[in-house]
Description:
This protein is mostly helical. It is built from 5 helices and 3 strands, in the order E-H-E-H-E-H-H-H. Helix 3 runs antiparallel to helix 4.
Amino acid sequence: MHSGYTxxxxxxxxxxPTYAPIPSLLAMAAVHNRLVREKTRTQVALIxxxxxxxxxxxxxxxxxxxxxxxxxxxxxxxxxDLKRRNLLPAKITAEYAEKNFIKAINKGPAQDLLKNGIxxxxxxxxxxxxxxxx
Length: 134
């Protein structure tokens, strides 16, 4: 990038009535496509920090539209809240639930890669080839 930054974090934390969030996928796609047009996309990693992603498809779409990493902070906070309110089995810690969530989320995009005939995550990231209706 022209400023020398190699990481851009797109976050919806701290929104209020003055600064309303836009959907993370829309923000991701807009920034990704702008960087592609400027021929600077390969010089920067795009990180999403959002309360929105919570299902496999959300993660697959964000990666498919350019996300290098995703921090689903609200999903993690929800797991910790469930444990705090004793809504998870006694044997399950919040950290274990987080680990299982991450494991499940990581499997989804990998399956979509195979379905679309793509061999690496790097080839999938930003390719905008995801067809959720298949």
